[in-house]
Amino acid sequence: MNKFEQLGLNAALLQAIGDMGFETPSEVQEKAIPVLLEQETDLVALAQTGTGKTAAFGFPLLQKIDVEDRSTQALILSPTRELCLQITNELKQYSKYIKGLHVVAVYGGASITEQAREVKRGAQVIVATPGRMQDMINRGFVNIKNIAYCILDEADEMLNMGFYDDICAILSDTPDDKSTWLFSATMPAEVARIAKKFMADPVEITVGAKNSGTATVSHEFYVVNARDRYEALKRLADANPDIFSVIFCRTKRDTQAVAEKLIEDGYNAAALHGDLSQAQRDSVMKSFRGRQIQMLVATDVAARGIDVDNVTHVINYQLPDEIETYNHRSGRTGRAGKLGTSIVIITKSEVRKIHTIEKIIKQKFEEKAIPSGIEICEIQLLHLANKIHDTEIDHEIDNYLPAIYQVFENLSKEDLIRKMVSVEFNRFLNYYKKKKDLSSERSSERTSGGSIKAGDAVRYFINIGTRDDFDWMKLKDFLREALDLGRDDVFKVDVKEGFSFFNTDGEHAERVMDIFSNFQLEGRKINVEISKNDNGGRKSGRGDFGGKRERRDRFADHSERRSERRSEGRFEPRGERRSVGEARPLGRRSDASRDRQPANKAFEAAKRRRKS
Ligand code: ADP
Ligand code: MG
User: Fold this and answer.
1) Ligand 2: centre distance to CA 53 (Å)
2) Among 90, 188, 246, 577, which has the highest number of CB atoms less than 10 A from its own CB?
3) How far is CA 564 from CA 252, 497, 544, 561, 574, in A?
4) Ligand 1 atom with least separation from CA of 24
């Protein structure tokens, strides 16, 4: 009898499990499934990410759903859209042989009426994010008054994200006699509070020691200018020739871009994020496990299930928005008693976040300097020497040696060694000779935002407008997504025909310039310039409507008028403006001809593309 069968799962599920290639249940599945199948009970299960919690609740839930009844019987709440879709997809796979079972995903950012329609067609299981679910309830699009099961997945994450009130409101709309199952990686006070408030005498399951990774992980941070982030990453990789690492970025776009740059620069790297198909992700993970990939660049959500042995470094290319996520990230290394290092690359303005993290993880960070080119050469040379020293000899080579000996006939042992290691040395030396010391810039006050301080509003020019089908709402959404900023962080969005303006707080200026220093929209280079420091602008009108009303005043500003003229199509690039391409120290991106393509040409090209 198959191990899953022993847990009491029925034939339809077993067949799907077979298709998915699951052979043995994970610990949390082994512990939770029989309990949930046999009893109508509340349950709290604590298990680290990637331990198979979805199936631990998914299998028993699907088996318990009455498919003859088309009403909503179960609600699963999960923190993010990605996880919501991931759970939905998993459940669909699990239930592919259960006829008449419907699972519907309900999440923000997609049409609510379409989701309402799907629910209406009959969805026994709804997987939802709390915010959208509240919306659906308020509009009478769902009825959860008679559900039998409510599952809180990644409960700690949901509460971290501030969904406490939403969860309480949603749960108060469900019947008292339902069963509530709570799954979480950790059990902070808020999770305990939810459990206490909404659960009756729950069965408790804990898998693995909590925070088992921490004792074996050391934490380091490196302070660099935002524009040097990528260069810093490369140096860290070069300074650790045997690196086997997971690199975390905040957005899918950054993840993809960093991976692509690394690959271009000759590293064994790959991206892992939600825009890849399952097959692509599986193939990336397979290569990573097989160590053909040394640097896996991933988003938090995509890396959630990652449990790979012997990861040497976790690199936070950007800090996560939620500081608590840091724990999930650093837990990818230092597993199974091995030692690991968790590295954070940050800008000066983020240093205080390190102190916050130190408090949460109850461990100290060590501040380190990005290795200099010389140090890297040294490390690489020693690595090469050791590698040569330790290389095992396959005697097949003997056949080729006579010819080789002949080539080296006139060299002494010392000269031979010198030449051999020079092969590698020259490569690094040539690369690093002209590079400046990244860490020495720590003392410098200059950032790509000049003397911009947090608290000052900064106004930007961007070369897209109504001609590119943007109105202020669309542009604001686009900016927020591209910059990965919060609801109120982009303001005073003012869209004109060929270009637009927007504001952020000074603390985001570096990031804005950094992200838009190399940003393509449908193949076209997006150009963002700092228009001016808009001191106090935020206070005088945060919303976009406010911004619109003020437009007249701001029109008097010279820099805007200059830009306005420029958009007419007669713009010549000028040295004085803060062109992102110029500010960039790294070779590849300063391709002046591309960066300085006159705006009108770009527009013409964009228009042609749209027409065709
Ligand atoms: P968690 O929610 O605990 O973070 P998931 O439920 O997302 O973990 O599972 C992580 C990955 O492990 C998923 O890709 C899932 O398909 C896979 N998985 C789950 N259970 C098993 C199993 N018993 N055998 C093999 N793979 C499994
Ligand atoms: Mg999960």
Assistant:
1) 5
2) 246
3) 33, 9, 20, 5, 15
4) 23
Q: Domain 444-537+591-611 in CATH: superfamily?
A: RRM (RNA recognition motif) domain (3.30.70.330)
Domain 217-372 is classified in which CATH homologous superfamily? P-loop containing nucleotide triphosphate hydrolases (3.40.50.300)
The pocket around ligand 1, CB under 6 angstroms, is made up of 22, 25-26, 29, 47, 49-55, 304-305
CA distance 330 to 318: 13
Segment 422-440 mean pLDDT: 75
Let me know: does 216 contact 339? Beta carbons within 8 Å.
yes
Average pLDDT over residues 234-263: 93
Q: Of ligand 1's atoms, which has the minimum distance to the CA of residue 56?
A: 6
Mean pLDDT, residues 259-277 taken together = 92
Q: Which of 87, 86, 132, 126 is nearest to 110 (CA)?
A: 132
Nearest CA to ligand 1 atom 12: 52
**329 C-alpha to center of ligand 1: Å?**
17
Q: Which residues have CB less than 5 Å away from ligand 2 (the ion)? A: 53
pLDDT tens, residue by residue, 444-484: 333 333 456 777 788 888 989 888 888 888 898 899 888 88
Res. 361 pLDDT band, cuts 50 70 90: confident
CATH 3.40.50.300 matches 25-211: yes
Greatest mean pLDDT among 209-223, 365-379, 540-554 lies in: 365-379
Number of Cβ within a 10 Å radius of residue 216: 14
Long-range pairs for 282-291: beta carbons < 8 A, 24 or more residues apart = 291/244
Please give the distance, rounded to the nearest whole angstrom, from the Cα atom of residue 80 to the centre of ligand 2.
11
Condensed to tens digits (0 to 9), the pLDDT of residues 343-359 reads 999 988 888 899 888 88
